[in-house]
Amino acid sequence: MEANVPRKKSRLAKNKKKAWRKVDITDVEEFLEDERLQERTGGLVAEKLDAELFTLERKAPATATEDPVPKKKRRKEPKVLKCYSHLMPDPKIKLARKPQPSRKVKDKQAPHIKEKVLSGVKTQKELKAEDQRKLVQEKRLKKDRTKGSIVVASYNLWDDEPKKPVDPFAKPLVKRPKRKAPSDLPAVQVPHPGASYNPDYEDYQELLSKAHEVEEKKLLEEKKLQKFEEEIKKVDPKTLERTWLSEMSEGIKDKEELKEEEEDGDDAINAEDLDRISVNPPVRRESKKTRTQRNKEKKKKMQEKLKAQGKMDKTKANEIFRLKSMKAELDEREADLQRKAQERRQKWQSQGLQTRKLGRLKFEEPLLEIKLSGELEGSLRKLKPEGNLFVDRMKSFEKRNIMEPRQEAKKYRKYKRKTVIKRSHKV
């Protein structure tokens, strides 16, 4: 009995997640899979038109009795050999200009233009083009004629201002930009007339006096150095050591002095703190001002202000009578400004002749090239050369602010020089 009793269907809540596994969705999955397949293979069939789905066969079906048409066999072209491949044009490289087919202008011309050409009447534009072509041709012929010819000078070479021949085919020269030289001094300075091989007596004596002054200055500097060395030698070595120690320990202080300074500093800090606490004196009730006292002070300040304003107005009014003196002051100021401007101009002009400091070294004037009276020769052939041309040019560059002053490089050895006695010398 119990076996035949119908079972109650288990009701499941559809809104719960448990029910999802119990529902059969195979038909839905099949339908979706079919739709995906259609989309992959050309679109949904339901959405397509009849013309897209069906085609009409217009040709009659081929019968078995009819003989099929034999296909024509294509003739095989002979293959190009590999060795000739480099002679063929590369398909990857684009040609600069494609070969264009020849065009017959006459055929493409309009009938009214054809009539104009046949009549022989030329337009203004065509006439102008013809003239232009003639001019170009004449110029070319002229150039070819004068190519091998020798240019003959059509002016006197020994004139003060000779005229240069004008070349009709020469390009115009480019104008050089104007640039101010770093110095107004000439590139090659004229030497002193006393430096001549056969100088005038006065000029020679002047040059000698200049050389004498230079030597005197050198001697004075040497004497100063010698004097200083002698003074150092006189001083006792112990006193020298003491002075050296005192100089070296100028900024260093003793421990006791440092302690005292620290204590003084603490006291100063304490005093400062006290000052900060009580900046102003305590306010007392007796010292408080009344309203009448404040009003009086305000009134007094206002009166002083009005008085000062009246004084200023009075001085401004009196300035009208000072016009003469003011004019004299203005004239004096203007004259002073002009004088200063003149001084500045002169200073700026003189700077062009001065040597500026360009590097770390200062410019030193070169030594005077002078021959003593015993070394002078009557003939220029017997005279020995003085100075160096290269050094002279270098000094000129330095003096004219073109190059910074330089020092001669000192020669020194990186390693100690070995001394070896030869065997032959030993013997």
Can you characterise this structure?
With about 425 residues, this protein is an all-alpha fold. Among the domains are: about 15-45; about 195-235 and about 365-380 and about 385-400, no CATH class. Helix content is about 45%, strand content about 0%. It has 12 helices and no strands. The longest helix has about 35 residues, at about 200-235. It is extended and about 145 Å long. The termini are far apart. About 0% of the residues are buried. The mean pLDDT is about 80.
In short:
This protein is mainly α and 427 residues long.
Helix and strand topology:
Blueprint: H1 26-40, H2 50-53, H3 105-108, H4 111-119, H5 124-145, H6 201-234, H7 237-248, H8 255-277, H9 291-318, H10 323-351, H11 389-399, H12 423-426
InterPro entries: Nop53/GLTSCR2
Protein name: Ribosome biogenesis protein NOP53
Function: May play a role in ribosome biogenesis.
N→C terminal distance:
149 Å
Mean of residue pLDDT? 81
Number of strands: 0
Beta-sheet strand percentage? under 5%
Protein name: Ribosome biogenesis protein NOP53
Biased composition (Basic residues): 97-106, 286-302
Region (Disordered): 57-78, 97-132, 169-200, 246-318
GO biological process, one term: ribosomal large subunit assembly
Output the keywords.
427 residues; mainly alpha; 12 helices; 46% helix; extended
